[in-house]
Write a structure and sequence with these properties.
18 helices; 60% helix; 4 strands
């Protein structure tokens, strides 16, 4: 099993997790969820008369995580291949004799561990989604504030044409919203698992399906129409949603890191005391961007492991199910840290409009070449206009070359050339797109 401490503790854990998400992913949290499942099972069975209520009460009384040692359970798990077997043994020993025969009634180890992992995921997603909400709000504020702040768009690593920082931030926001919606949906669909040894609930007799429904309801989880021991779609949906979140936050982090490069300098990460270097006193490193990017790069392998493990044989898998546990917890750990850091990074981001404009003007209007060609195309044809502007773009001064070309001057006056070289006139629908994106999270502008 994983260490009993929070995954965010230790020399490296704090660099990838979040302090309010990771406690929900610790061994103690997983143990608590397994015991919650055992308690919900006997309550459900007692409700339909399969076991005596006093026995259920006695078992529930012992389903408290502080009564058990995660380290010893982890060592004992090696003999059975999962930690549920030694836990059931210790739980049985802890209850009065009259209740011992009813512990873990009708269930198999996978029922308890699958259900526990559903609980752990749902509980961890609470604070994780709050961080994601904060990141969305911070991106929305940037998009609104900088709706009309021009900067140069870059394609294939090169300056391309004008856009706005508001549109860039709106793109970040939309990616985060999409990831949030999918994660909420996947989290809400993590079901309870109760199928018994081979998915028939034979040990519970005709009351089995009713117990399964009550079991799920007791835990606040959706019930599955039938056991999903080797049908792992709920886990795949969650893994994909977590991977999507890490990709969305990674996109934001990559853009921020590039915009914060010394030669670009259009943004900088805020936060007092962050970003220092052990060797170079002058540096202010984009630490949140770096750490979010690190998490995003780890995600695909973890998602791939869960998808590879999803092809499972017959009624219960040998090894594939076991391969899911730690990668799923690791994905939740990384996603929590990325969401938390993304919220902080965007909330504290320092935006430098004057540097954005300076960089846009650095090529002497070349980023408006498309705009000039578009003005010439009605009179010259698109191809001829493109060739003329390409030739002018190769000259030392783009504007001077445009004004010196008689073919261009036959169709454009000096004032019209200057209009074409105004970036504010070549922003297309950027502002409308920002407004549309903001309306999805705030409602229409009034």
């Amino acid at each position: 099993m994983r260490p009993s401490s929070s995954p965010s503790e230790g020399l490296l854990g704090g660099l990838s997790g979040a302090p309010d998400v990771d406690p929900e992913l610790s061994d103690t949290a997983l143990l608590r969820a397994m015991l919650d499942a055992e308690a919900a099972l006997v309550r459900a069975a007692a409700d339909v008369g399969v076991l005596p209520a006093p026995a259920a009460d006695a078992i529930v009384e012992q389903c408290r995580a502080e009564r058990y040692d995660t380290a010893s359970l982890g060592r004992a798990a090696d003999a059975a291949g999962n930690p549920v077997v030694p836990l059931v043994r210790e739980l049985t020993a802890a209850v009065p004799e009259h209740a011992q025969g009813w512990v873990h009634v009708g269930a198999t180890s996978q029922d308890i561990l699958d259900t526990a992992l559903s609980l752990v995921a749902v509980r961890a997603l609470g604070p994780l989604l709050r961080h994601l909400d904060a990141a969305v709000d911070a991106a929305a504020r940037l998009a609104d504030t900088h709706r009309d702040t021009v900067l140069v768009a870059r394609t294939l690593g090169q300056q391309a044409a004008p856009t706005t920082f508001g549109l860039k931030a709106a793109g970040w926001m939309t990616g985060l919203v999409d990831a949030r919606d999918r994660l909420r949906q996947a989290g809400a669909a993590q079901p309870a698992q109760l199928g018994g040894a081979v998915g028939t609930l034979a040990a519970l007799g005709p009351a089995g399906p009713d117990i399964a429904e009550r079991f799920a309801a007791n835990l606040g989880l959706p019930a599955s129409p039938l056991p999903w021991h080797t049908r792992r779609q709920p886990r795949l949906d969650l893994a994909a949603a977590l991977g999507g979140l890490l990709a969305a936050t990674g996109k934001v982090a990559l853009d921020v890191g590039l915009l914060a490069q010394t030669e670009i300098g259009e943004v900088a990460e805020g936060g007092a005391g962050r970003g220092g270097s052990s060797a170079m006193p002058h540096k202010h490193n984009p630490v949140d961007s770096v750490l979010i990017g690190s998490a995003a790069r780890r995600a695909p392998g973890l998602v791939a492991t869960l998808f590879a493990a999803a092809v499972q044989e017959h009624e219960r898998a040998a090894g594939a199910w076991h391969a899911e546990w730690e990668p799923l917890l690791d994905l939740l750990h990384l996603a929590g840290g990325a969401a938390s850091r993304c919220a902080r990074m965007l909330a504290e981001l320092q935006v430098r409009p004057e540097r954005m404009r300076r960089n846009l003007d650095a090529t002497g209007g070349l980023v408006l070449a498309e705009a000039v060609a578009a003005r010439l195309a009605p009179g010259l044809g698109r191809s001829a206009a493109h060739d003329l502007v390409t030739r002018a773009a190769a000259a030392p001064s783009f504007r001077a070359a445009l004004l010196a070309d008689p073919q261009i001057r036959a169709h454009l006056s000096e004032a019209q050339v200057d209009e074409a070289l105004d970036p504010h006139r070549w922003l297309g629908s950027a502002g409308r797109f920002v407004d549309r994106a903001l309306a999805t999270v705030r409602g229409p502008r009034t």
